[in-house]
Design a protein that fits this description.
Layout lengths: L2 H33 L8 E2 L6 E2 L1 H17 L4 E4 L11 E9 L1 H6 L5 E8 L2 E9 L4 E6 L3 E4 L2 E2 L12 E4 L7 H13 L5 E3 L4 H9 L5 E7 L1 H13 L3 E3 L12 E6 L1 H11 L2
Parallel strand pairs: 3-4, 10-11, 10-12
Antiparallel strand pairs: 1-2, 4-5, 5-6, 6-7, 7-8, 8-9, 12-14, 13-14
The protein binds D-MYO-inositol-1-phosphate (IPD) and calcium ion (CA).
Length: 272
């Protein structure tokens, strides 16, 4: 394929991500509104007692998978709620139907549907849609990153000490959170402040759109980051694994990302 044909193909995938994320996110949003303001959504637990999953996480993933199979029957799928499928093409879709399930359960606004697609280990298109706030982020490899139709870019921050960082915490309240709280104790005195939104995909979107200057999180999964990583890359951000090495989005373990001038300093600050 010529470079133009490749860019067009990536943009077709971006638009598919946008369409499906909007349909799925709006479905989840209607379901949440139906519960009434502040009403806790009923949930089971997954990896630990503090890791919730609702009937809406499962139903939203089903909707995404149904739409993907109709449009892209040969592709592979990795879904947070277990919709795994091995296809015959070279594309794999990584789906988080509701990223920020704790916020969804408590009726806090920051949750989203995240859909990203990977070829040869690299994201080629993605969308992150936050229906309560109405933000649709999307990106195509080589084609830029957008909120709605507006191009976005990472912040121009150069000084770590006055930078706003985002982070998140694992559902493993034992050893993982001990590592993470020790890290927070190191980072917090050295930056302007730290935000914990409750959605890794929206944290990455916030970096991509300059709404925060950087983000780091350990113990995460491909469905949390595939779409968001592409947003950051296309918005001009720097992004690596925790040790500063190249990030494998299909098995991320940890992500450190920031405006380019901050990234090295942030890696040094967060690594053990
Ligand atoms: C979680 C959120 C949260 C992050 C956790 C994720 P979920 O995903 O992205 O911000 O800190 O690591 O597991 O469970 O809401 O889809
Ligand atoms: Ca989820």
């Amino acid at each position: 394929m010529s470079p133009n044909e490749t860019a067009d193909a990536h943009d077709v995938l971006r638009r598919l991500c946008v369409d499906i994320a909007r349909e799925a996110g709006d479905f989840a949003h209607r379901s949440r509104v139906g519960l009434g303001p502040g009403a806790r959504a009923a949930h089971d637990t997954k990896s630990s007692a503090v890791d919730p999953v609702t009937e809406f996480d499962r139903a939203t993933e089903e909707l995404v998978v149904e739409r993907l199979l109709a449009e892209r029957p040969d592709d592979s799928i990795v879904g947070e709620e277990g919709s795994n499928r091995t296809g015959t093409s070279d594309l794999t879709w990584h789906i988080d139907p509701i990223d920020g399930t704790v916020n969804f359960v408590y009726d806090l606004p920051l949750w989203c549907t995240s859909i990203g697609v990977v070829r040869d280990g690299r994201p080629v298109a993605g969308a992150v849609y936050a229906p309560v706030v109405g933000d649709m982020y999307s990106a195509a490899a080589g084609g830029g990153a957008f909120v709605g139709d507006a191009p976005i870019a990472v912040s121009g921050a150069t000084d770590l000490a006055t930078s706003l960082m985002a982070t998140g915490f694992s559902y493993h309240v034992g050893s993982h959170r001990e590592v993470q709280s020790a890290r927070i104790a190191r980072v917090l005195p050295r930056v302007r402040d730290i935000r914990r939104s409750g959605s890794a995909a929206l944290d990455l979107a916030a970096v991509a759109s300059g709404r925060v200057d950087g983000y780091f999180e350990e113990f995460i999964n491909s469905w949390d980051v595939v779409a968001g990583v592409l947003l950051v890359v296309e918005a001009g951000g720097s992004i690596t694994a925790f040790d500063g090495s190249e990030l494998d989005v299909t098995a991320p373990a940890g992500v450190v990302t920031a405006a380019p001038a901050l990234h090295q300093g942030l890696v040094a600050l967060v690594r053990d």
